[in-house]
Structure formats: C-alpha cells, structure tokens
Amino acid sequence: MMQVIDGKPFVRPCRSIPSDGFEHSDFMPSVCTLYDPLTRLTPLAGCAMLKPSRIGGEPRIAAALRDEAPWLAEAIDSIADQVAMSLWAGQPWLSLRPMLLVGPPGAGKTHFARRLGELSGCGDAVLSFAGVNSNAELAGNPRGFRHAQPCFPACVIKRTGTANPVVIVDEVEKACPGHMGDPVATLLGMLERSTAVRFFDGCLAAEIDLSHINWILTANSIVNLPAPLLSCVQVVEVAGPGPEHAETILAALWRDIASERGLPPAAMPQLEAAAGVMLLRLFRNTRSVRRLRPAIETLIAVSAWHAPRVLN
Predict the structure, then answer these.
(1) For a Cys-Cys bond, which of 64, 67, 145, 273 suits 141, CB 3.0-4.6 Å?
(2) Which of 201, 204, 163 is nearest to 30 (CA)?
(3) What does the alpha-carbon distance between residue 219 and residue 229 come to, in Å, rounded to a whole number?
(4) Does an H or E element contain 219, and which?
C-alpha cells in the first residue's frame, strides 16, 4: 500500500522476511539482515522529471531523451503519453508499461533504457539473456543453496533505493529454456502486474511487490519470441541513428566516457578540430556506435598522453 510522507510517495516492497536462524551467526550472513532494506518504506521516484519545463510542453524526461536520441521518437512519444496519464491520475512517479525495443545491434537500445533510469532518478540495472539457459540469473537462488540470493529485481530495488527502478533485460530473444528452468517463463510472472504485486521469492521466503518495476526489454528480432511474452509488452521498432545524428552521438559518447571516469565533459582532453571531423566522418560512413566509441577513447588516450591532466 502506498504511503505519502512529506508529499512524496513510498511503498514497502516486502512486509517481512522470516528468520533463517543465522541472525546471530558469526559465520553465515543472515538473509533477514542482508535484505532488511526491502522491508522498509521505499520511495517511488521520478516526480521531478515528469513535469513539463513549461506550460503545454512535454515532460522534462521526454525532452531530455529526445535531445539525446531523436531517432527513438516512437519510444519517447510513448513514454511521454504514459507520463502525462500518470500525472493526470495523480501518480507522480515513473510508471511505464513493459516495453520491448526491437532493432539492429548498435541502435542505442540499451543505452536509451539506462538513460531513462538515470534521468528519472529511479536507477537502473541490466541483465543480459544472451546464452542464459536457466532462471537463476532472474529468479535468484532460494534458501538452502550455498549462495542464496533474491530475484534480480529485488536486488535492484535494494541497490537503487527506489521501488520503481528501470530493469533492462538485454537480448531477450537469445535466452533458451534448460533443465534449470525457463528464464522467459519467469520473466512473464514479473511483467504481469497482477502477479508481480505478490511475487514469491524463494530466498526471502516471502512475497515481494515488483509491480512498480519499469521493464525495458531489448531484442534484435522478435521471430523467436513466444506469443505470451509479446502480449505482455509494447513492441517498438527501433532504427539506428542516421548520418544526421553524428554530432548528437559524438556528444553523448563523450559525456558517457567522462562520466565513467568521474569527470565532467569539460575536464576531458581537448581534441584537435581535425580529429573531431574524422570522428564525425567515421560515424557517417559506418553508422556504428560500437566502432565510434573505441575511436573516441583512442584519441582521448593520445591527447591525455601528450597533455596530462593537472590535478589541484
């Protein structure tokens, strides 16, 4: 049940976690102690970025995403519509229907989803289904296993400190069922809000509310995806960025590389004008973000080698 504290919405993901008998053990960590944050009131985030920056304008988060990835207009339009509906219904937090982004490698699908989590303040996490043939990565390990762990969304809630993080399932079409379970079948139970609201977790030995999770799935093709999964998600076809988006892509990658090193973009080494032209030409010729990024990193490394950063 949602509670409002100082005008902000909170929910309690898990009511309580039964004892596992290790609360006072010096040798075995207790599940109750490790995952106690899941039993506390946890905020539903995203309010600040849902409101428009001007009267009649679109939500801040949609405008920010559109500036960074204009080729993903259909997905952004859907997010903007859902945000508007949430605000109209008096639910000022990020609450999206599960979305499946389908498009070629390098189209920016995963990056877009991660930026949604970052910009909204909800936090994010990525789980790749490539080569996965069990449900342990998603469902976790129940009590009795040597390394018991809650389901992946529960761990994300604990890490982000929000009840509605963006959880990205990457390359969902590459999972295959095995003798250790079917990851897609497990995912279905988490996508449906009617079952996600009381999802039983074997490690917690309790029900946990996963109904506020914002799910973004990615795939290169939907050919091998089961119909029940497709019925649970909004499928958005994604085309990669075009040559006209070269400068936008370059700026986004520059910002990401700086962020990974804990620096503002302005603190990065300055590139020669000719180097910038070369990078733009590389993308316009290949339309490959995956080739552009290592080229940027190489040029930054060369620049840093010849002009080391001065630390105060």
Answers:
(1) 145
(2) 204
(3) 12
(4) strand 214-219
Determine the residue type at 64: A
Note the pTM of the prediction, 2 decimals: 0.86
Give the count of beta carbons closer than 10 Å to the beta carbon of residue 283: 23
CATH class of 3-237: alpha beta
- Asked whether the beta carbons of 289 and 241 are under 8 A apart, the reply is yes
The residue behind tokens 């089961």 is: 226
Per-residue pLDDT of the chain (312 residues; tens, 9 = 90+): 789 999 899 999 999 999 987 777 777 788 999 999 999 999 999 999 999 988 878 999 999 999 888 999 999 999 999 999 999 999 999 999 999 999 988 788 998 999 999 999 999 999 999 878 788 889 999 987 778 899 999 999 999 999 999 999 999 998 877 667 789 999 999 999 999 999 999 999 999 999 999 999 999 999 989 999 999 999 999 987 778 888 888 888 888 888 888 888 877 877 778 888 888 888 888 777 778 888 888 887 887 776 555 554
Domain ranges of the chain: 3-237, 243-306
Structure tokens at 187: 């995912």
